[in-house]
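Record type: monomer structure entry
Structure origin: computed from sequence
Chain ID: A
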Amino acid sequence: MVAGSGSITMSDSSLFTTSGTNGDIRLLASQNVIVGDIETTTADVSITATAVSITDADALVGVANDNDLDITALGLRLNAGVGVGEVVDHLETTVGTVSARATSGGIYLFESNGVTVGDVAVTTNRVGVTGETTTNDSSDSTQSDLRTTANNGNIVLVAGGTLILDDGTATADSTAISAHGSGNILLKTTSGLLDINAAVKSDTGNITIWNTTGAIEQDAVTISTDGGTIDIEAMDATNGSITMVAGSTIVTDGNSTTGGNIRLKSGAGMSITGINAGSAHVSLLAGSFIKDIGETTTDVVANHLRIDAGSWVGEASGTNLGLLDISVTRLSVRAGNSIYFNELSDITVDTTDAITVNRVKDDGGVLNSVETDAKQSDLVTTANDGNIVLVAAGNLTFNDGTDVLAGENVTEDNT
C-alpha cells in the first residue's frame, strides 16, 4: 500500500493480513503511517513514513501504554522521518527480528516475546493496470540495527523474552544500537537472556541495560557514551549474572567530556574487563563473585571505585586471571570473601563518594529516575576468613574513612 503524497491511517480495529512465507506486507506513505493491526506470522513487514512518523492507532489506557498488539511478523522493518512509536504510546509487536530508523521522535517498541535486532528486507509484488506483477519500486532493501540519526532521538526496546543484539549486514559496523546526540537508550527484557553481540552507543546520552530475570552477556564489543551514565543490571539472585569477555568494553570517557558514572549490578556473579569512566566513578555490586575476564585490558579505570560483593573480588595471583587490574584514585570494598587488587599507579583507600547513574525509563527520559549507591569506606571482608591483597605500582595511602549506613549518621570506625 502506497500513499504517494499523504498518510496511511488505519483504525484501531482495521487489519492487514497475509498467509504463507511469501506474504510480505509493505506500507509506504510520504507523511504518517498510523497502525491498527498487521499480521503475517511467516513473512515480513515493512513500514515507511518518509516525512513524519509511524504511530499506534490504539488509544492509551488512561495515561499508560495500551496492550493491544499492532504488528505480528517474522521480521519487521521500520523507517520514519521523525519517530517510530511515541513516548507514551509505543508500538506493540510480536516479531522475530526488528530493524528501525528514526530521528527526533525516537524509537519506542514493546515486544511481547523474544526478539533479535538484525537484518530485515521486504519484497512485495506490485500489480499493474494489466494485472501483471513486478517487484520494481515495491520492495525495501535490507536494513539493520535500531538507529536514531538526528536530533537526539531516544531508543527504547522492552522485550518479554530473550533479547539478542546482532550486527546486521546493512551498515556492517559492529553496531546494533546507535542513538544520536543526547538520545538515551533503554534495552530491557523481563524473561530470558540479554545477549549483546554488537555495540550499543549513544553520542552523549544515558544508557540503561536491564534484565529482570536472567543474565546479561556481552561479546567483545563496546557499550559507550561520551559523558552520559551507563546503568547495567541483572536482578535475579540465581540467574542474574553479568558476563563480559576479553575485548569487551564499557566506556563513558569519550573525546568531548570527562566521563559519566558507570554502575553494574548483578544478583549473581560478575566477570569484568575494560570498564572506563575516566575521571568519573564506578560502582560494582554483585550477589556473588567479581572476577577478571580480560588480562590484556585494565579492568576498571575511574576516579572512585566502590565495590560491594557477596563473595570474593579478584583472585590470587596464578589463579585464572588473578588480581583485578585497576587504575583508580580512591577505593572502597565490601566482600564476603577474599579481595585481590593490582593498582597500576597511586591509590588511596578512603571513603568513596555516593555514586549515581541515570536509569532510563520507558518514555526514554531520566527525570527523577536515578540509582544511587551510598558512600562507603575501607577494605572489608565480612566472612570466610577472607584475605585482603592490594598491590600498587605507586604510592599507597590509607585514610580513616567515613561512610553513611542505612538509618545512621556519618560515623568513623578508625579503620
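Annotation 1: Confidence is low (pLDDT under 50) at residues 404-414.
Annotation 2: The two ends are 72 Å apart (CA to CA).
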